[in-house]
Amino acid sequence: MKIGIIGATNRTGNVILREAQSRDIDVEIILRDRRRVSSDAEVLEIEPTLLTSDDIEDLDVLVCAFGTGKLNDSSRLYPALIKHLLEITKQSSVRLMVVGSSSCLYTDAKRSQRLFDEPGFPEAAKNSANSLNEVLKLLRASDGVDWTYISPAERFVFRAPRTGHYQLGTDFRSYNAAGLSEVSYADYAIAFVDEIQNHQHINEHISVVSR
């Protein structure tokens, strides 16, 4: 198996990279500046929006872990990237897997409210949340693409241990036995790479919570 990762130098993309390499999965890092890479993985130096179907034809899975936190206009840039990735993976054997956001998870049984609709949702995070929700809409409206969008639990904890245990949820906010909606980056990466290898949630929005 060979996967390509866009965003392998940010926090989430990097833990997915390391988890994939620990399982001897062949990884290609896709980014615009190879000087940012400290990994020994193969590198394709290209602006991701300039990728062609020929560039990814030897991949089984294309992972998009594109970071939106520091973008001034992520609401425009990330959906534009996803539109492009949908186009080059359409009618191909390359699966598109997207690192999602907890902000897009439903919080009520009627599916009328998402986490980013709740009072108190940080104003500074709304631009990124809207961007990632737009990405999800584009995936759902696509045709001829094998995609999966994976959200972490509400509380996504970077400096937390790798327990090796997690539970999958649907597109609703879910909780573990302790009543917490949280997951470590490391356990999220385990779930993400498990899905890469198992290929069980085709064209679905799923979530990961600690167990």
UniProtKB/TrEMBL annotation:
Pfam families on file: NAD_binding_10
A molecular function (GO) term: oxidoreductase activity, acting on the CH-NH group of donors, NAD or NADP as acceptor
Residue span(s) of domain NAD(P)-binding: 7-193
Superkingdom classification of source: Bacteria
Protein name: NAD(P)H-binding protein
Lineage: Bacteria, Bacillati, Bacillota, Bacilli, Lactobacillales
